[in-house]
Amino acid sequence: MESLKDYDSKAQEYIINMGLFMYGKSKEFFIKELTEETLLKQYNNDYDEQKFQKEKQEIHDILIKRENEIRELKENQYKEYDLLRSKIESEQREHIDFLKDTLNNAKKDKETLTMNLNMLVKDKVENETKYLSDKITELETKNNEYYKRYEKQTKGKYYETDLLMPAFEEYNDKHLDNRWEITHVGDVARKTDFIFKDKHTKKMVMIDSKNNNERKVGTTDMEKFRRDIFHELSFAVGGIMIANGKIGTKKSYELNEDGGKILIYISNFHLENVGMIFSQLDIIIDLTTNNSESAFTSEVLKRNMKEYYKNDLAIFHNLERQKKQIDKNLITLATNYNQMFNEDILIAIKEEDVKEIVEDGKEKWIKENLCMELSEEMSAGRIKKGTISEFVLYYEVDNKKYVHYFKTDASRKTKITQLYNSCKVRNETSIENIQFKEENIKIDI
Questions:
Q1: Is the per-residue pLDDT at 435 higher than 80?
Q2: What domains can you pick out in the chain, each with its CATH number?
């Protein structure tokens, strides 16, 4: 109260009233708010707020930390990605280099293999060529041998001296202990070609050989053979005519008795069956030794027919062996040809034959109907076509004669082919008969 003394009465009154007002209000507030419950609630609110702020700060810190971790993870991821990319690129480069090296090595290996293959093919071709050349030489030798053996040469002298005589002597020595004395008399008149003298009976048989192949032995040669046998100085008891072809009208094997002498005719004779000749010599000796009408007994005829049958059978087997060998050679040649050239040899031969036939026919037709040599004399009076050049063609169509000039030889050949085909279609032998339409021909002139 002492402090109010310094104020006048109104101021004191105002201060007292304001104090009372504030006291009343404050008292009501504290009475109402400052209870145990409100104080606890207020405390709790303050505690919750602090806790919330703390938790918020902790969460914020955690978020910051997580963001930093995520950032670090991303940075590490980027680093790992860069490292992985670098590693992959390095591995790819290494793989690419490896593939390049592999390809280069493969290329080198291929070149080596190709070179080796070419060498092998070359060696094989050379070997096959040598084999075929040797085979050709062998076949040519055989062919020449057969030619010399079967073709008539100076009265068949080669056939007699170089083929028959050695075969006779070898068989006589090997199988008959040289029972027969064999003499070649091909150069002696009226003595046929060979005289066989039996050392036991001293009887002689004359043999005449004919190297005629497909040509038949004529009547003249057969009459000469008979005259030689019956010549007064022959002293032969019989004779044998052998031919590697056909003997006139005689059978393949024919035995005749004529004037007390035995004449035997053997067609299609082969050197491989030289033994048959000696069996026929025995037959002649037997038949002339038994000089009666019963000489031609059934046993002799039986023996003769057996010998001829064996002769033909031997020829047949020999032909079969030759056929099998030829078939084998043909298969080998066809197989080698296919392996070396990858072609069918039969088709290739047929194509060549057809081509040769067509080309030969065309060339012959051109020579007979066309002229390609420039000639003022031939040009006179002919219908001129094209501009004068060195490629000229003279021909005749529908009775009209033409001189045709071309810019190139190729166009001239085209014209020739068209003319030839037109002639071929119409099956005419002369170009004069060709029904030719000029408007259908297109030639570069």
A1: no
A2: 2-33 (no CATH), 153-322 (3.40.1350), 348-440 (no CATH)
